[in-house]
Amino acid sequence: MKTFAVIGMGRFGASLATTLYRMGHEVLAVDEDEKKVEEIIEDVTHAVIADAKEEQALKELGIRNFDAVVVAIGKDFQASIWVTVTLKEMGVKKVVAKAQTELHGKVLERVGADKVIFPERDMGKRAARALVSDNIMEQISLSPEHSIVELIASRNFIGRTLQEIALGQKLGITVLAIRRGSDILISPMAKTTIFQDDILVVVGKNEQLEKMETIDD
């Protein structure tokens, strides 16, 4: 179990906080809006009303003791930057900051954010990929460059083995599992044949994953 503090209970912050809590982690939710805190208090470990722009308020929360602190402040660029700087100066081990724009993200990196995330941009990319490809069922971003994707086997794959498809050699993509009806084949062997309606769980670089459906016969 890890400990997380999430500052800013907008849609992204609240969703992140409740998801981490459901995964079994200890989560502190922070917002200066009393209503937002009341709405999430039952779905996290602790929820407090505090102005994260005040360094003393952060100290009183013991913020530097958390494994990671997420700055999920919405449209107030100045506040998110200020809070990120303050957290790093306080010695927080890992600060993850939400950015609205590329410029905002660059500034957050410059002031010390250990990781910058772009939820709106990344959500748009996932939606675009889902619209373009009828095969993609689910996508989990591991980093800005890598994802795990669950997709229905394309017609080019049916009747061929993983060795014949050679996703690893051609695209650097690894097949983690194959879902076949109610059965799941974990770490399938190279000689495993792909059947119609098989669902492949693969991991790789996003740019390579997008080429899967155009791989040659």
- Poorly predicted sequence stretches spanning 5 or more consecutive residues: none
CATH-defined topology of the largest domain: Rossmann fold
What is the overall silhouette? elongated
Alpha-carbon distance between the termini? Answer: 46 Å
CATH architecture of the largest domain, by name, is 3-Layer(aba) Sandwich
Give the tags.
Rossmann fold; 9 helices; 217 residues; alpha/beta; Alpha-Beta Plaits; elongated
Write up this protein.
By secondary structure, the chain is α/β, with parallel strands linked by helices. It folds into 2 domains: 3-117, Rossmann fold (3-Layer(aba) Sandwich); 122-214, Alpha-Beta Plaits, CATH 3.30.70.1450. It is 34% helix and 26% strand. The strands form 2 sheets. A 6-stranded parallel beta sheet has the order 3-2-1-4-5-6, with helices on both faces. A 5-stranded antiparallel beta sheet has the order 7-8-11-9-10. The longest helix has 14 residues, at 119-132. The protein is elongated, with a radius of gyration of 21 Å.
TL;DR?
The chain is α/β, with parallel strands linked by helices and 217 residues long.
SSE blueprint and pairings:
Blueprint: E1 3-7, H1 11-22, E2 26-31, H2 34-40, E3 46-49, H3 55-60, E4 68-71, H4 77-89, E5 95-98, H5 102-110, E6 115-117, H6 119-132, E7 136-141, E8 146-152, H7 162-165, H8 167-171, E9 174-180, E10 183-186, E11 199-205, H9 206-209
Parallel strand pairs: 1-2, 1-4, 2-3, 4-5, 5-6
Antiparallel strand pairs: 7-8, 8-11, 9-10, 9-11
